[in-house]
Amino acid sequence: MSSALRAPNPRARLMTFAAFTFSPPSSTPASQPPRFKDLADGNILAHLMEVLSGESVQTYGKMKFPAEMRIQQIANLSVVFSFMKAHVKLVSIGPQDILEGDHKRTLGLIWTLIEHFAVIMINAHLKTDIRSYSELKETLLLWARHKASP
Questions:
Q1: How far apart are CA 120 and CA 139, in angstroms?
Q2: Is the Cβ–Cβ distance between 41 and 73 less than 8 Å?
Q3: Under 8 Å CB-to-CB from 125, ≥6 apart: which residues?
Q4: Is the pLDDT of residue 100 over 90?
Q5: How far apart are the first and last CA of the chain?
Q6: Backbone angles phi, psi at 32, to 5 degrees
Q7: Is the CB of residue 42 less than 8 Å from the CB of residue 63?
Q8: What is the pLDDT of residue 115?
Q9: What pTM was computed for the model?
Q10: How many angstroms separate the CA atoms of 110 and 38, rounded?
């Protein structure tokens, strides 16, 4: 497998995660690292899903903010995960993993979301019918080879 088609390393995933999820408001310094505990109440993930999908997460259940108690946090995350499962195939991750701050699974989830919605956005923009991220990578690689050939 060529290096262009390999899955990104954990550092690349973390940087993508930081750029994609924690786009800081103007009052927050851009150098602030992402904090996985910030995802525990479900608010950031709910907002991310609403922005990406254009739909309200609240249609899948009521969420409580601020969610200070663990039971409120797990309830909020369960609503977000119900919403995600309706849009994206999730494997080996659940609300408990986010609540406990499992970095590896959280980064995997964000990467899955990026892949899924990147394909949707590119299809909409280019009016194509690419069905998966791997198909998108192959298509881009073929296009680049075609453009680079004499």
A1: 14
A2: yes
A3: none
A4: yes
A5: 24
A6: -65, 125
A7: yes
A8: 82
A9: 0.69
A10: 14
* Tokens linked to 86: 């309706």
Q: How far is CA 36 from the centre of its chain?
A: 13
| Closest listed residue to residue 44, CA positions, set 57, 62, 54 | 57
44-72 mean pLDDT: 92
How far is residue 78's CA from residue 145's CA, in Å, rounded to a whole number?
A: 44
More confident residue, 21 or 7: 21
Domains and CATH numbers, the chain: 11-148 (1.10.418.10)
Tell me, what's the pLDDT at 18? 60
- Rounded Cα distance, 114 and 117, in Å: 5
Helix and strand numbers (H, E) in the chain are 6, 0
CA torsion through residues 65, 51, 137, 3, sign: negative
Distance CA 6, CA 9 (A): 9
Q: Quick check: 4 and 141 in contact, CB under 8 A?
A: yes
At 95 the three-state DSSP class reads: helix
Tell me: cis bond preceding 66? Omega within 30 of 0 counts.
Answer: yes
Q: Which residues contact 21 (CB under 8 A, 6 or more apart)?
A: 34, 44, 48, 110
